[in-house]
């Protein structure tokens, strides 16, 4: 009976999926020297140099304290720097950070290829469905 409960439980199945995909992502992003989340933060900076910490948190669905820790790690690696303008902390990529863009994109593509090899094109559809469900659960009204 427990197995049925676990399979019907969104909490359990989502966490299980998260752990499996996290291991895959960590494997694929190891060559970048960054965690997958740090790499995705840097990708957001590539897309919008001078992005605010608040906007990074919103895009990546992370708490401000988590964004601050990730930024501190990337600053320590000289991949980004921040500039305070009034009440905003704006984040920019350094030349060293910009040089990682190709490696990060390769890691992302390898991760995607890895799960598509297992799930087929259903992997992309599943990702979109999970994102939609997350949006609905986050803002139920």
From TrEMBL:
It comes from the Bacteria. Residues 27-124 form the HTH marR-type domain. InterPro entries: HTH_MarR-typ, WH-like_DNA-bd_sf, WH_DNA-bd_sf. It holds the Pfam family MarR. This is MarR family winged helix-turn-helix transcriptional regulator. It comes from Cohnella soli.
